[in-house]
Amino acid sequence: KKSELDTVKEFTESHYAAPNAKMYGIAKGKNVIVIHLESFQQFLIDKRINGKEVTPFLNKLYHSNSTYAFKNFFHQVGQGKTSDAENMLETSTYGLSTGSLFSQLGSDNTFQAAPAILNQRAKYSSAVFHGNVASFWNRNNTYKNMGYQYFFDASYFDTTGDKSTGYGLKDKLLFKNSVEYLERLQQPFYVKYITVTNHFPFTMDKEDTDFKTTDTSDSAINGYFQTAHYLDQSVHEFYNYLKKTGLLKNSMIVLYGDHYGLSNSENETLAPILGKSASDWTSYDNAQLQRVPFMVNIPGTTGGKIESTYGGEIDVLPTILHLLGISSKRYIQFGTDLFSKDHDQTVAFRNRDFVTPKYTVLNDKIYSNETGEQIDATEEVQKQVDADQKKVNKELSLSDSLNNKNLLRFYTPKGFKKVDAAKYNYADGLE
Ligand code: GP9
Ligand code: MN
């Protein structure tokens, strides 16, 4: 009898997208540095406020010919917010329909996640740098099950007094103070920086910003441009450290926004700043604002451009593996390589709404991406949308059974050694 795991495997195998030969292995052997841009939405890119760019450094990266950037890339998180984004990037499976997968399943589940895959296939070491306490989102337990060797959390850094804001160490200090650890990691490494300063309610100490922001009635919106500007400066400084230490030329830097910073209830106030009218703002407009940056910067290459392919966080892992010249075929992953000609451009949101290059489908209502208007579908369009909706529902529910029933414990990809969480101890540097 066909097991549930068989059903999941059947789906991911038939959904698999073979790599693009032009891109496969272009970053082989390089260090991988993932920079998690907290609450960072795509509309910040190239945005000017009072004549000044909000994020001049990230804009430069976005337009650089050593950066493969995506302008139609969406976050796909649910209630687990940051942790859902992390889960998708590390495993290419979805977060749960309610709550956080990290919190609910991270302590016990079997994972076949990026740090373990990279370690076993290409001898990568791995680490996370984060300015908050290790227990937030149950990261300390989840990371061990994912095979992270090191977790440099708040306990490794001086976070006292004005060195922190609401969610921990200020980003500039996180990057700066991490370098001594980063330099000592065995190469190649796979590391992730989870920033915190650009987080709701987007407040910051006066001395950390001189960015002249908006003066809307919503202080979160006004603050957002300032904390995003600070995040941009932090990443710029980090790039300078990477250059100085010589790490930059041996690394591939992956930058992405985890989810929205400004919520739907704030978007009407935001609308005029984006050149839109507040009075006819719709759910369609809210959905379009769920775009977040996804950029892969590979210093030394020149083929980078701004891609218009549609995709989301679920697609990152197979994309990265293929850039590193590691086949993803043997793993159970729901996303597909963004560079593949077979890449699936249907982007599922956690609530089963979805976006394709042509349509945005919200609660069974179909909007045309071309006009932004809700349409009365022709029979043909309705048939296509129904098929896409069916696939989205299936994908989410198969990912849920895989994770809720811990089915990966029954599946061993070729050559994969199960992660032994007991091997890792994240005690701080003081002990
Ligand atoms: C906390 C940080 C914030 O450590 O990652 O998480 P979020 O509130 O964005 O889910
Ligand atoms: Mn977040």
TrEMBL record:
Pathway: Cell wall biogenesis; lipoteichoic acid biosynthesis. One of its GO terms (cellular component) is plasma membrane. Keywords: Cell membrane, Manganese, Membrane, Metal-binding, Transmembrane, Transmembrane helix. Substrate binds at H199. Mn(2+) binds at E38, T82, D258, H259. It comes from the Bacteria. Belongs to the LTA synthase family. This is Sulfatase N-terminal domain-containing protein. It comes from Lactiplantibacillus xiangfangensis. The chain holds residues 222 to 652 of 717 of the full protein.
